[in-house]
Structure formats: structure tokens, C-alpha cells
Amino acid sequence: MVEKILTMKLLKEKYGVCRLGKTQLIPEWAQNSDFFSITRTSDELSIVCIEESIPDNVKCEKDWRILKIEGPLDFSLIGILASVSKILAQKGISIFAISTYDTDYILVKNKDIDNAIQSLIKERYEVIY
């Protein structure tokens, strides 16, 4: 029996990656789901949130799916994102990665999600739907 490398879980919803102005307040609509990520830099306010909550007038890239690496992951682990991104890059699949204290989330365009999942399974990752 071949041992799996890691387990990933596909989140059900579709998500959007939004760009707001660097001085804008964090909008309430961005916080309407179980998963959202907010990053402010000196250049922008970047928000990842459930697609259906994003107003029409917001600059964003929609139609992303999320693969959650089941954690928590120890900080001493090396190469997790590198391994996943290499597998997907070899298949021509672009990713958007988000890391939290406990784990990593890999965003993949919906049009590529089936190919991404099959590629990861082939490389001994377990993917839960």
C-alpha cells in the first residue's frame, strides 16, 4: 500500500480575489463566510472571500476554488507549498496560495480544479470532496 503524503479538502464554494485601495476600510461583505482572508500592505487591501458576496463594482478575479491542506501543520515542515505548486505548475495550473498559522490553502481556478485534483492524487495526495 502506498502511503499518502498529505490530505487536502476541497471547499465547496467559489471564491474571489479582490483588490481595494490601500486606505479603504475592511468591508462587511468580505466577512460573510466561513473562509475569508484579508491582507493590507502599503500598496493595497487584498481580500479573498466567497464570490457571491462581492459587489459588482469591486475589482476582483472570480471563479477560484480552494484546496485546504488538512492541518495543523508544524512550522518545521519544509517544502509543502513548493511540492504542491511544482506538481500543479508541471500541469500548467496557476495557483494563489494563502498560509495561516495552522495550514495552507491553495486557490485554483475552477476550470482547472479537476485536473489539479487528479494530478495531486497521482502524486499520492489524498483529496476529500
Automatic annotation (TrEMBL):
InterPro entries: A9CJY8-like_N (IPR049447), ACT-like_dom_sf (IPR045865), CASTOR_ACT_dom (IPR027795), CASTOR_mTORC1 (IPR051719), UCP008459 (IPR016540)
A Pfam match: ACT_7
Domain of life of the source: Bacteria
Domain A9CJY8-like N-terminal: 13-56
Domain CASTOR ACT residue range list: 60-120
Protein name stated in the entry: ACT domain-containing protein
Taxonomic lineage of the native organism: Bacteria, Bacillati, Bacillota, Clostridia, Eubacteriales
